[in-house]
């Protein structure tokens, strides 16, 4: 990885955008990469739009500013499309990953994304079935690993399992549900074209 890869996460309070950015950063750091992860929100409440960001590089990261031109955008809540400029600043060779049952071609047309790559996955459905709640952050991480090649899948899964075990020590069903959601989204993500 020669340059800094920037990722912007769009979600609503309670959907886990900040947590996803932090988990991705920890997995990248564990793989020997340099990372930054930070949220951007004020006194928002549950359901309000939130942003989170990652920077990942094989070299030290000297930037200390907002992510203006991400190479990757992840949208946890499709109802933000049309209300928030989710594709704003996305690089010409960038990718956008959206939690929706729609086909990538439909999202691409809706957002007028031209030649950019679009991927979709029904992370809400996957999380509802695997975890028992509609919290799309972990399945979106699985889809992100598939479409971006930021990290090797097996390395990502190993670190994420460790993190989940630390966070949910006494809740084996939560750990297994999240891991299953990640695996399913990795397999079920739809590619543009």
Structure report:
- The relative contact order is 0.17.
- α1 (17-30) packs across α4 (137-148).
- This protein has 6 helices and 7 strands.
- The chain is of the alpha/beta class.
- The chain has a 7-stranded mixed sheet with strand order 2-3-1-4-5-6-7, sandwiched between helices.
CATH superfamily: Pyruvate-ferredoxin oxidoreductase, PFOR, domain III
Number of helices: 6
The CATH architecture can be given as: 3-Layer(aba) Sandwich
In the residues, how many domains can be counted?
Answer: 1
The first-level CATH class is given as Alpha Beta
Largest sheet: 7 strands, mixed
* Secondary-structure element series: EHEEEEHEHHHHE
In short:
The chain has 193 residues and is an alpha/beta fold. It has a single domain, classed as Pyruvate-ferredoxin oxidoreductase, PFOR, domain III (Pyruvate-ferredoxin Oxidoreductase, domain 3, 3-Layer(aba) Sandwich). 39% of the residues lie in helices and 21% in strands.
What are the salient characteristics of this protein?
single chain, alpha/beta, Pyruvate-ferredoxin Oxidoreductase, domain 3, 7-stranded mixed sheet, 7 strands
Task: Give a topology summary.
Blueprint: E1 5-12, H1 17-30, E2 34-40, E3 49-57, E4 72-75, E5 95-99, H2 104-111, E6 117-121, H3 123-131, H4 137-148, H5 153-167, H6 172-188, E7 190-191
Parallel strand pairs: 1-4, 4-5, 5-6
Antiparallel strand pairs: 1-3, 2-3, 6-7
Helix pairs in contact: 1-4, 1-5, 3-4, 3-6, 4-6, 5-6
